[in-house]
Amino acid sequence: MTHVQRRLAFFVPAAALLAVVLGCGLTRLPSFGLPHSEYARYITEHAPAQRHVSNIVSSVVFDYRGWDTAGEELMMFAAVMGTALLLRSGRDEERRRPTDVMTSDAVRIAGAGAVALTLLVGLWTIAFGYLTPGGGFQGGVVAAAAALLTWVADSYRRHRAVTPATLVDAAEGLGAVGFLAIGLLGLVVAGSYLQNVLPLGIPGTLTSTGTIALLNAATGLEIAAACVLIFAEFLEEYVVTVPGPTPEDP
Amino acid sequence: MSVYPYVVAGVLFLAGLYGVVTSRSYLHLGLCLTITQSSTYVALVSVGYLSNGQAPITQGRTPGKPFVDPIVQAMTLTDIVVSVAVLALVLSLALLAQRTHGTEDPDRMREVRG
């Protein structure tokens, strides 16, 4: 009996039992498409007036359930730090890795346009996160994709030049600390963690929503930096940097 | 009354778990874990769905149509991003396993070195 067969012999009865429990639980959920919880109804009715948001999901992420998001931010931070620590400590310099290649002029010029456009979309998604669909989580990932595109379109050296490790590490920490600090500001000034302490502004403008706007920006910074950091750590495994990248075409 | 989306979530969950159990590589294990996690997105978004509803965004809303549940959507979106970071952590462990033991098959890594 192989290891897999032995594991399956244990898994199949356990999974059958789990399937029954899951089936009972899931089929007793509110029917698909029918009106839902009182909590959701309360938030959709009151969020626009209470928090001056037009994207209600953002008010849930950064205000009503802001405490959960603080946990998610720390989870993200811990996972990224773990990845960086594991990969940085055991890096093997001896191994043969593909060398850094410089792409052709055509790819570089088209890539420059793509990087600018992707970065703009990312920053836009973060900035208008509480007004239109988007927010720090989604926009952060798009902005990080712009940084990764510099590697695809140019060279690894260029990618590291625009995203120096010290800057990315600092931005990641600043985003996470910023989120917690804005929450503490609410605790100190208004008596409860993540309580809004800033003027709410005119609904539908970028200066509205008080702390949601700041928390959204801090999240965008942290997520973008975290994704860039993950890319950098794995690319460092894959690409070897040479003093001058060799051109692809002779 | 429709339970179909919940059935999809249940099947995804069990399929992902099956993959984790029979996995012969940490790389494969990480991907199966992500599939297991995706089942929660399907379950969450299905719970919040509303027939004839609209996205919970007040700008440009159609009057008279109810909003779908914004709470489960918020949970799903933060979860997706965090799952990427967790997958990165699993992949870095796979890389380390490959480097120190020369294999990413958990069954072939018999000895534990301190």
Describe the structure.
The complex is a heterodimer of chains A (250) and B (114). With 250 residues, chain A is mainly α. Chain A has one domain (54-247). Chain A contains 9 helices and 2 strands. In chain A, helix 3 crosses helix 9 (211-238) and helix 8 packs antiparallel against helix 9. The N and C termini of chain A lie far apart (56 Å). With 114 residues, chain B is mostly helical. Chain B has a single domain, classed as Helix Hairpins (Orthogonal Bundle). Chain B has helices at residues 4-22, 26-48, 70-101. The radius of gyration of chain B is 19 Å and the shape is elongated. Chain B starts with a helix and ends in a 13-residue tail after the last helix. The chains are: A mainly alpha (250), B mainly alpha (114). Chains A and B meet through helix 1, helix 2, helix 3, helix 4 and helix 6 of A and helix 1, helix 2 and helix 3 of B.
Summarize the structure in short.
The complex is a heterodimer of chains A (250) and B (114). Chain A is 70% helix and 2% strand.
Key features of this structure:
heterodimer; A: 250 residues; two-stranded parallel sheet; 9 helices; 70% helix; B: 114 residues; Helix Hairpins
Please, how many helices of chain A? 9
Helix-strand sequence of chain A:
HHHHEHHHHHE
Most extensive interface, residues per chain? Answer: A-B, 66 and 56 residues
> What value does the Rg of chain A take, in angstroms?
23 Å
> What number of structural domains do the residues of chain B give?
1
The CATH architecture of chain B: Orthogonal Bundle
Helix coverage percent of chain A: 55-70%
Helix content of chain B: 55-70%
User: Mean pLDDT of chain A, nearest integer?
Assistant: 85
| CATH topology call of chain B | Helix Hairpins
Beta-strand content bin of chain A? under 5%
Ends apart, CA distance between termini of chain A? 56 Å
Cα-atom radius of gyration of chain B: 19 Å
Q: Overall pLDDT of chain B, averaged?
A: 85
Q: Structural class, judged by helices and strands of chain B?
A: mainly alpha
How many extended strands of chain B?
A: 0
Indicate how many domains the architecture of chain A comprises.
Answer: 1
User: In DSSP terms, counting alpha (H) and pi (I) runs of 4 or more, how many helices of chain B?
Assistant: 3
Q: Structural class from helices and strands of chain A?
A: mainly alpha
Principal-axis shape of chain B equals: elongated
